[in-house]
Design a protein that fits this description.
Number of strands: 10
Domain HTH araC/xylS-type: 167-265
Helix content: 40-55%
Structural class: alpha+beta
Number of domains: 2
Strand content: 15-25%
Keywords: DNA-binding, Transcription, Transcription regulation
GO molecular function: DNA-binding transcription factor activity; sequence-specific DNA binding
CATH topology of the largest domain: Jelly Rolls
Distance between the termini: 15 Å
Mean pLDDT: 87
Pfam families: HTH_18
Shape: globular
CATH architecture of the largest domain: Sandwich
Strand order of the largest sheet: 1-2-3-9-5-7-10
CATH class of the largest domain: Mainly Beta
Protein name: AraC-like DNA-binding protein
Number of helices: 12
Low-confidence stretches: 1-7
Largest sheet: 7 strands, antiparallel
Length: 281
């Protein structure tokens, strides 16, 4: 499939170009999107928690920089629950991956819980393979070709994963499918497990506790809805927050910003559009 395939045609939103990988580049447990900023602006954002391991591979030399560790070589890797680290950049041109935690061990060789904390450089996990991949992406302009490069790299790196219990995988599926509103206390009984066993297995294999996972899933959806200019009251009601104040506190806690500032920021609009497209692809 060539770069002119309509399924791969990038869309433009303000000064941003957004592309989503199609089924031709599918990797189980991974979604891919591309972002190119033509506005000439700069940004500074806190890395928020999310229901996937995020990998951002900068396709231009040195335009993306986490405040905690300096310029990246291979790509920025953030776990489900990163610490309050900020990232700055300008003239962004990057490929972003969202890796389901149940697939992380096979693709990254690292358990999800080990990726929480400060974001890492992909080169610290993949070594020179990450540096070579980034170099090839910098040399490539076509989104179609970039997604193919990433797909091939993931395929080569895939290993036999540490086993994820079927019960844990099912619980994770229920949490995401319910948009974080499943009754966590009911889950251990579905599998005939004690609460302690369920909590321990889930936390070790997904990376956060079941309750924390549900909070993060709902928060991520709230961010994406706010990015589509949905009203704060509407989002709070839709996702089961007690009220607008509850949503305000959660966004301030995890993103370091108010819901209103998220809704007014074109970067979050672009992000919401990209992952909606990637999910549908």
């Amino acid at each position: 499939m060539g770069a002119d395939d309509p399924g791969q045609e990038p869309r433009h939103h303000g000064g941003w170009e957004v592309a989503a990988a199609t089924a031709a580049h599918a990797v189980p447990g991974v979604r891919m999107a591309g972002f190119r900023d033509r506005s000439g602006g700069t940004f500074e954002e806190r890395v928020p928690p999310g229901p996937a391991i995020a990998i951002v591979i900068d396709c231009t030399p040195g335009s993306l920089e986490p405040f905690s560790s300096g310029a990246i070589e291979g790509g920025l890797v953030a776990g489900i629950a990163p610490t309050a680290v900020r990232v700055a950049g300008s003239a962004i041109d990057c490929v972003e991956l969202q890796v389901d935690p149940t697939a992380a061990q096979a693709l990254l060789g690292v358990a999800p819980r080990e990726l929480n904390g400060a974001p890492l450089d992909l080169a610290a996990i993949w070594g020179r393979d990450a540096v070579r991949l980034r170099s090839r992406l910098i040399e490539t302009r076509s989104w179609d070709d970039r997604f193919a490069l990433v797909r091939d790299a993931l395929t080569r790196r895939r290993r036999s994963p540490a086993r994820v219990d079927p019960e844990v995988a099912d619980a994770w599926r229920r949490i995401t499918a319910s948009r974080g509103r499943v009754l966590i206390g009911d889950l251990p009984g579905l599998y005939g497990w004690s609460r302690t066993r369920f909590w321990s297995r889930f936390t070790s294999q997904i990376g956060v506790s079941p309750k924390r996972a549900a909070t993060i899933v709902r928060f991520d959806l709230a961010l994406r809805r706010l990015g589509t200019s949905a009203g704060v009251a509407e989002v709070a009601a839709e996702l089961g927050y007690a009220d607008q104040s509850h949503l305000h506190r959660e966004v301030l806690r995890f993103a370091g910003r108010t819901p209103g500032s998220i809704a007014a920021d074109p970067l979050w609009t672009v992000d919401s559009v990209a992952w909606t497209r990637a999910h549908a692809a």
